[in-house]
Amino acid sequence: MLLTPVLFCFNCLTGKVIIAKDVHNMRANNNRGDDTEKLLQMICDLREKEQTTVIPITDESQELQLLYVQTRQMHRMFEGYPEVLVLDATYRTNKHRMPLFVFMVEDGAGSSHVVAYAFVASEQQHVVSKLLETFVKENAKTSDTNVVIVDKDFTEIAAIRESFNSKPSVQLCQFHVMKAFRAAAGQLAHSTEERERLISSFGEMVCAPTPEKFEDAQTDFLRHANAEACAYFQKNWANIANMWARHLCDKQFTAGNNTTNRVESYNAKIKHILSASDKLHEALKGILQLSSALTQEARHRACVMKTCTFYSYEASSDVEARCAKELTPYASSVINKEAAKARQAPPELRQIEATVYAVSSSCGTWHEVSTQTWTCTCTTFSKMGLPCRHILAVCERTSVMPDLSQVVKPRWFKSHHLRIMAADADAEETCDTASHQSTNVELLTMQGQHLIR
């Protein structure tokens, strides 16, 4: 066998028979070492120059199991809007096949913000639990997190319930709920007509606005479903209705979010800049650049909000005018739509007490509005934290101006949003001008299913 000059040199130096595969392995090992050095250097730079929180965790074999990343801007945005967290993982973003978890919130202007990233070696529960424990530890405001929205991944659900001290309500993405049921119905139904009937009845349960309508839809489903479909529903859905039925989920403040569409839309942007062949430090650089670009867009919108006056031709009441002045344009648009519904179909009002009114709704139910606490028992008020059509109807009929500090969540005020965005910009400027001493990268270790510092 003729040897190439490279193989001949190795044979002379080692005294062993070395084949081309050995050279390939040595080259791969060298490249792997270079990749590790570049990743460690990037972590050091992020910590020193930008004061980014970067936490790498390895196992006993020094294999990376978790890489948690949160910039100061991300941390600040979560502090401002911690109530609702949307969590999802995306794939094929690096050559190590490490899933990328994205933590996201919605701000007072209705825009999405990433508040943390994490690459994980696997989605086993002990890894995901460690990830969420890290997020909770690094963000004290998780004590104010009331809702976490995920797809139907019970590993994530169990980890959330184990890690969050606030014991948030875990809600399932409505799109994934229907997708999972459609797939099951295709296997359980004996005909196309039966499949469509099952999906329709289940969809009515998901969107039922009241407990009574939910019970009616469930009764209809169980009456027409075959034994296998009934057993499937009872086993997989009936006992967790509070995670997917809107009349229950919407009792919690969700800012109107009932899917993971926000984070999945963002993940689609990630796929445009990353590929399955990217090295980890390249993937990390790419997602941070994307996050920075979207943050700049949000700051621009905040500047426009601060310097411009917004008007709505649909606003016709003093309440709407005041809301347009004090609240973000996004929040004002929600209120304008509620006011329009109240004008198109004026509800019936009954005064129960001096400050309590019963207001009819389009679905045949009645809601109580208190002008003392400025609350309503409808799900629009509970899920949005904004004046609903029932409150607006009471204001219109009684000529009373509501106390916005009571009826509106703080997140929807312009002053709150602009303060968060200004603090975010100031934090970045401080970070750019500060000098920091060089620090080494501290690796945490993971031992089996037990995570140890």
UniProtKB/TrEMBL annotation:
PROSITE patterns: ZF_SWIM (PS50966). The keyword Zinc applies. The keyword Metal-binding applies. Keywords: Metal-binding, Zinc, Zinc-finger. It comes from the Eukaryota. InterPro entries: Zinc_finger_SWIM (IPR052579), Znf_PMZ (IPR006564), Znf_SWIM (IPR007527), ZSWIM1-3_RNaseH-like (IPR048324). Pfam families: SWIM, ZSWIM1-3_RNaseH-like. Residues 367-399 form the SWIM-type domain. GO terms for molecular function: zinc ion binding. This is SWIM-type domain-containing protein. It comes from Haemaphysalis longicornis. The lineage of its organism: Eukaryota, Metazoa, Ecdysozoa, Arthropoda, Chelicerata.
